[in-house]
Amino acid sequence: MESKEQRSRREFLKRLIATSVITGLSSYVKPAELLAALADGKMPRRPLGKTGYMVGIYSLGGQATIEIIGKEKEAEVIINKAIDLGINYIDTAAAYGRATATIPKKDAMGTSEKHIGRVMKYRRNEVFLASKTHDRTYDGSMRLLEKTLKNLQTDHLDLWQVHNIKKRERDQLGKFLGNDGVIKAMEKAKSEGIVRFIGCTGHEDPDTLKDFVNMYPFDNILMAINAADKQYNSFIERLLPVTVEKKMGIVGMKIPARDRIFDHGGIITMKEAMDYVITLPVSTIIIGLDNVEELEENIKIARDFKPLNADDMLAIEEKAKPYFKDLMFFKGLSKWPPEW
Prior knowledge:
Blueprint: H1 4-22, H2 34-39, E1 45-47, E2 54-56, E3 58-64, H3 72-84, E4 89-91, H4 105-108, H5 111-123, E5 128-133, H6 138-152, E6 157-162, H7 173-176, H8 182-191, E7 195-202, H9 206-215, E8 220-224, H10 235-238, H11 240-245, E9 249-253, H12 270-279, E10 284-289, H13 292-303, H14 310-320, H15 324-327
Parallel strand pairs: 3-4, 3-10, 4-5, 5-6, 6-7, 7-8, 8-9, 9-10
Antiparallel strand pairs: 1-2
Helix pairs in contact: 1-14, 3-5, 3-13, 5-6, 6-8
């Protein structure tokens, strides 16, 4: 017999799926284009909030191979192939770069931007390009922006975001909006045409991000969402409806939890992992890639995407439930219960 909690969850998911339809986040913006797009094998596109940009439902994340020093050629192949196959949104950050036994993190930072820049040098006008600042000050962020533009070999960003807002920063959000804060740097860059849109990101605590988007009219948000989300500190329940109401661009990340979602006997396939999140009212999802084969698999899933129903969503959540602590490591669940 179904419990009250299960019935409540089903109704919640039904409302979210309905929201996707109402807001145009479940199909192409013009129904008349649907048959032609499907016939061409194209990836569905959705509005990126109020930016006016139509983004493919699957986008390229600038981590994995793209952030590894010495992988310039492999990264270039992945990025070019992604654009060739219809990806029109690329996400990176000034902080992305993988440390090695001989190269510390501080020296690896910027590697992802540099690798993407090798392609942006000649394909910049084909994508919506997003990067991030991990600095919280005006001066520090402006210095990072200068490096970012140089690394990416471009004169502007489509989207510049505050990187990885954390729970411990909740009482500092006002400072980020002050005269010496990161938001003033973003507004300055936007007024000069160096940045088109402003956003924020985070994967640790939905309530801190909710406070931030209620304090400032961001254009876009990048948040962590996967099939284990509901088990603890849920972004889907506590943040997603707020950002939908504000008509923000919504980008999902941590979809396969850095492939941990496959570490328990294949409990969830990549198709289930992607379909689960894309069924929600999001604009697109980003996933880092190890190789072109993974890219091609994910592109096929995105092209073949059909929204799930509430029962499908519940079934996938149940598969992830026994392993949720591992699948949400990014929320600070290395210990249970978490120490906050």
